[in-house]
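Supplementary notes for students who missed Thursday's class. We covered one full example, reproduced here. Read the sequence, then the structure, then the short commentary at the end.
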Amino acid sequence: MDSDIHSFLSHVVQLEIRIRKAINTQMHGNFSSIFKGSGLEFSDLRQYHYGDDVRHIDWNTTAKGHGTFVKLFKEEKEQTVFFLLDVSASQQVGRNSHSKLKTLKEVAGVLSFSAMQEASHLGFCGFSDKNEKFMPPAIGKKHAYRVITELFKMDPESSGTDLKAALGFTLQVLKRRSLIFVLSDFIDENYYDLLRAMSQMHDLVVIQVLDKQEIKLPSLGIIPIFDPERKRTTWVNTSSKFFKNLQKEQGTQKAEELKKLCKQWQADYISIRAGEDFVPTLVKLFTVRK
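Structure (token representation):
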């Protein structure tokens, strides 16, 4: 396992160097700004001056009758970066060494390594239909390497998916505004409300990882398709127009709907194909967030 982890870390570092170089050469600004604290925390009070933002008035203090007071804020220098990672059985879809789970782990590993370079608090939760692994956010390179190692080693016990429960758990444990990456295929139901709540309370990045076979399956006639989460096989006619339309509707339209909602909620959204080079997509994400 040690040699596997070493190989994974080396791969993650090489990918991260590619991203950093691309951002620097394209003159898209400061790479580190992605992981710097963007939140504001309360610092002090002072009397209101003409031109101050009325939204910063502290009405509780002002109500005491000693004048109008506004809150002063200081920038939070240390960002909390948290990864919510879908490790359910549907992530095993893909061609052998290029499953969605492998891609999810690589993306989270690269972003964790980037966050570590900027001295961020780092944590993650891997979920199926239960919490498979949770590491509370902490700072330091030793902790960051543990996070990346545990990400790589994660081997889920359960096969189901409960994205709603995972989002609810994260909202409970992260009280302070954080940068949250949710990595999943988002093939689940009834989670939109909590994803929206997360976008309001935190800085949210949605990373949808799909296998291209899920979006467009070739015409192979009648074949058995195994559902890894429900552990059952269904025979389908992949050549039928009905099946192709249904698959397109469930795949492409759902992804478009999620993308549209993220835009409404001012959350960042990117889509990645399992097994494909995701560095250009992450570079695009970093430049958009600058």
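Commentary. The chain has nine helices and twelve strands. The CA atoms of residues 92 and 99 lie 5 Å apart. If anything here is unclear, bring it to office hours.
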